[in-house]
Predict the structure.
Amino acid sequence: MDAWAKGQRTLDAFAATLRDEVDLDRMTGELVAVVEKTIQPEQIGLWLQPTPPVGKGHPNSRAE
């Protein structure tokens, strides 16, 4: 199996994991592991944008 196919297989497995993952810390760990396995960088940094509060009028709001 060539490197591209291995990378694609790893990314497909990660995508399948994300569909069911709700724990942000675990998802972050999985993402870092995939990057380390596929790209093998010297360092990894991950910045996450805070989620704004959901309020009335927001598309994801359940408030009527």
